[in-house]
Amino acid sequence: VAVFLLFAMFGIMSFSVSPLAPPKVQVYSHNPGEFDQENTLICHVSGFHPPDITIQLMKDGVELPNAKLTDLAFKQGWRFVLTKHVTFTPRRGEKYTCKVTHGTTVRDYAWESNM
Q1: Across residues 36-45, what is the average pLDDT?
Q2: Which residues pair with 115 in a beta bridge?
Q3: Which conformational region is residue 93 in: left (phi greater than 0), alpha (psi within -120 to 50 degrees), or beta?
Q4: Which of 25, 35, 43, 61 could serve as a FRET partner for 108 with CA atoms 20 to 30 Å apart?
Q5: Are the C-beta atoms of residues 31 and 25 closer than 8 Å to each other?
Q6: Contact between residue 67 and residue 114 where contact means Cβ atoms under 8 Å apart
Q7: DSSP H or E stretch at residue 12
Q8: pLDDT for 3-33, tens place per residue?
Q9: Domains of the chain, with CATH numbers?
Protein backbone atom coordinates (compact mmCIF):
# COMPACT_ATOMS: atom_id res chain seq x y z
CA VAL A 1 0.00 0.00 0.00
CA ALA A 2 2.83 2.41 0.87
CA VAL A 3 4.52 1.75 -2.48
CA PHE A 4 1.26 2.44 -4.32
CA LEU A 5 0.80 5.71 -2.44
CA LEU A 6 4.36 6.74 -3.24
CA PHE A 7 3.82 6.08 -6.97
CA ALA A 8 0.47 7.89 -6.86
CA MET A 9 2.05 10.93 -5.20
CA PHE A 10 4.96 10.95 -7.68
CA GLY A 11 2.54 10.72 -10.61
CA ILE A 12 0.45 13.62 -9.32
CA MET A 13 3.57 15.71 -8.68
CA SER A 14 5.07 15.02 -12.10
CA PHE A 15 1.87 16.01 -13.90
CA SER A 16 1.36 19.13 -11.81
CA VAL A 17 4.95 20.26 -12.46
CA SER A 18 4.90 19.45 -16.20
CA PRO A 19 1.54 19.90 -17.91
CA LEU A 20 0.91 18.69 -21.43
CA ALA A 21 3.02 20.70 -23.89
CA PRO A 22 2.77 20.23 -27.66
CA PRO A 23 5.98 19.88 -29.68
CA LYS A 24 7.62 22.67 -31.64
CA VAL A 25 8.80 21.19 -34.94
CA GLN A 26 11.45 22.43 -37.36
CA VAL A 27 12.10 20.61 -40.66
CA TYR A 28 15.17 21.62 -42.62
CA SER A 29 18.13 20.28 -44.55
CA HIS A 30 21.81 20.45 -43.67
CA ASN A 31 22.65 22.20 -46.95
CA PRO A 32 20.44 24.45 -49.09
CA GLY A 33 17.94 22.27 -50.96
CA GLU A 34 18.99 21.46 -54.51
CA PHE A 35 17.38 18.80 -56.67
CA ASP A 36 19.53 15.76 -57.43
CA GLN A 37 22.12 16.71 -54.77
CA GLU A 38 22.63 14.47 -51.72
CA ASN A 39 21.70 16.21 -48.48
CA THR A 40 20.54 15.48 -44.93
CA LEU A 41 16.88 15.90 -43.96
CA ILE A 42 16.50 16.96 -40.31
CA CYS A 43 13.45 17.09 -38.06
CA HIS A 44 14.08 18.85 -34.73
CA VAL A 45 11.29 18.46 -32.17
CA SER A 46 11.44 20.38 -28.89
CA GLY A 47 9.48 21.69 -25.93
CA PHE A 48 7.13 18.73 -25.58
CA HIS A 49 5.79 16.85 -22.57
CA PRO A 50 5.14 14.01 -21.90
CA PRO A 51 8.06 12.33 -23.69
CA ASP A 52 5.87 9.75 -25.48
CA ILE A 53 6.45 10.81 -29.10
CA THR A 54 7.10 9.27 -32.53
CA ILE A 55 8.99 11.03 -35.32
CA GLN A 56 8.96 9.70 -38.89
CA LEU A 57 10.76 11.16 -41.90
CA MET A 58 8.64 10.56 -44.99
CA LYS A 59 8.95 10.75 -48.78
CA ASP A 60 5.60 10.89 -50.56
CA GLY A 61 3.89 9.35 -47.52
CA VAL A 62 6.34 6.44 -47.11
CA GLU A 63 8.81 6.34 -44.21
CA LEU A 64 12.44 6.79 -45.26
CA PRO A 65 14.68 3.91 -44.14
CA ASN A 66 17.90 4.23 -42.13
CA ALA A 67 16.94 7.42 -40.27
CA LYS A 68 18.87 8.09 -37.06
CA LEU A 69 17.33 9.40 -33.83
CA THR A 70 19.19 11.27 -31.10
CA ASP A 71 18.84 10.27 -27.46
CA LEU A 72 15.91 11.84 -25.66
CA ALA A 73 17.06 14.92 -23.75
CA PHE A 74 15.21 17.40 -21.59
CA LYS A 75 15.48 21.02 -20.60
CA GLN A 76 14.17 23.07 -17.71
CA GLY A 77 10.57 22.25 -16.79
CA TRP A 78 10.81 18.70 -18.17
CA ARG A 79 10.41 19.86 -21.76
CA PHE A 80 11.89 17.21 -24.03
CA VAL A 81 14.01 17.44 -27.21
CA LEU A 82 14.61 14.92 -30.03
CA THR A 83 16.14 15.17 -33.49
CA LYS A 84 15.82 12.69 -36.34
CA HIS A 85 17.84 12.83 -39.57
CA VAL A 86 18.43 10.85 -42.74
CA THR A 87 20.50 11.19 -45.90
CA PHE A 88 18.33 11.92 -48.94
CA THR A 89 18.55 13.15 -52.52
CA PRO A 90 15.54 15.36 -53.31
CA ARG A 91 13.98 15.06 -56.75
CA ARG A 92 11.54 17.44 -58.42
CA GLY A 93 7.94 16.50 -57.59
CA GLU A 94 8.74 14.55 -54.41
CA LYS A 95 7.26 15.66 -51.09
CA TYR A 96 9.31 15.29 -47.89
CA THR A 97 7.67 15.59 -44.49
CA CYS A 98 8.27 14.98 -40.82
CA LYS A 99 5.34 13.12 -39.25
CA VAL A 100 5.08 13.71 -35.50
CA THR A 101 2.76 11.71 -33.24
CA HIS A 102 2.45 13.10 -29.71
CA GLY A 103 -0.26 11.46 -27.64
CA THR A 104 -3.31 11.30 -29.91
CA THR A 105 -2.21 14.21 -32.11
CA VAL A 106 -0.61 13.41 -35.48
CA ARG A 107 0.77 16.22 -37.69
CA ASP A 108 2.84 16.39 -40.86
CA TYR A 109 5.41 19.17 -41.28
CA ALA A 110 6.73 19.78 -44.80
CA TRP A 111 10.32 20.36 -45.87
CA GLU A 112 10.60 23.29 -48.24
CA SER A 113 13.43 23.27 -50.76
CA ASN A 114 15.16 26.51 -51.69
CA MET A 115 14.10 26.20 -55.33
Answers
A1: 98
A2: none
A3: left
A4: 35
A5: no
A6: no
A7: helix 2-17
A8: 444 444 444 444 445 689 999 999 999 999 9
A9: 19-110 (2.60.40.10)
pLDDT digits (tens, 9 = 90+) for 65-107: 999 999 999 998 999 999 999 999 999 999 999 999 999 999 9
Measured CA to CA, the distance from residue 93 to residue 90 in angstroms comes to: 9
The answer to whether the beta carbons of residues 113 and 28 sit under 8 Å apart is no
pTM over the 0.90 mark: no
SS3 78: coil
Helix (H, G, I), strand (E, B) or coil at 88: strand
18, 49 contact by CB (below 8 A): yes
pLDDT at 59: 99
Q: Are 44 and 25 in contact (CB under 8 A)?
A: yes
